[in-house]
Amino acid sequence: xxxxxxxxxxxxxxxxxxxxxxxxxxxxxxxxxxxxxxxxxxxxxxxxxxxxxxxxxxxxxxxxxxxxxxxxxxxxxxxxxxxxxxxxxxxxxxxxxxxxxxxxxxxxxxxxxxxxxxxxxxxxxxxxxxxxxxxxxxxxxxxxxxxxxxxxxxxxxxxxxxxxxxxxxxxxxxxxxxxxxxxxxxxxxxxxxxxxxxxxxxxxxxxxxxxxxxxxxxxxxxxxxxxxxxxxxxxxxxxxxxxxxxxxxxxxxxxxxxxxxxxxxxxxxxxxxxxxxxxxxxxxxxxxxxxxxxxxxxxxxxxxxxxxxxxxxxxxxxxxxxxx
Length: 324
Hints:
Rossmann fold, Alpha-Beta Plaits, 5-stranded parallel β-sheet, 5-stranded mixed β-sheet, 12 strands, 48% helix
């Protein structure tokens, strides 16, 4: 039995063919049926409201059925929709039909057999378009759900490290720990200074390999309990708690700085070197504990100094306003 609510658009510039199509459709009981007397009008109607099934004559003036099919596929792509395109034709032969299928036509009905073939083809089209549009809807739901998960996820999709939100949360925990138990919270910002130059020279796939290699090496260079994160495309951050502020100074992280800068990383484009800029911002219990954003901003503000001096730059947060 046909689904009488299936939306159908009939495009035909000849009254004879249109009358035959209408007779079959009316006999089947379809109710959501629209008519267009030209391909251009049909496209306007589809832009206003899509249809599940399009029935059109292959040969029409100004725009034939094949060109109409191409335009319909463009609309479908933009609207995440599938329209089953059925052409009416008097053409015979494998070459003509092959041309139609290559252009995206789903089915054709020979005009000489329309009375016998059209209704069975419509019933088949119903099932196919229902399945296709359900799959398109489910796929869109999966895409949206995946986007939400990525947005809510505390991890970087490329490296598996914590992302910026995760870094803020862990730094906040470190500052609270220092505030209640003493010691020092240390925020190390690692910026790849030559990232823009690498991005201009190598494709994204190579950059991804490089960033993954940097992430793996960082894990090897830090203590097991240190928190390693990727907070932006070219920046990593490490959060630690230390017994005192002296353990956060530049001399204690020379191994980390040199471990990235002095040994190249293997990629499919060869060995690539990075210019790592290491800036450190720390806070101890002798000063009023800042919030994570303040300490992160302090480390960020030290980058020009690190680039100019090619050395590790350390700053202790004192509670005084920091330069922009």
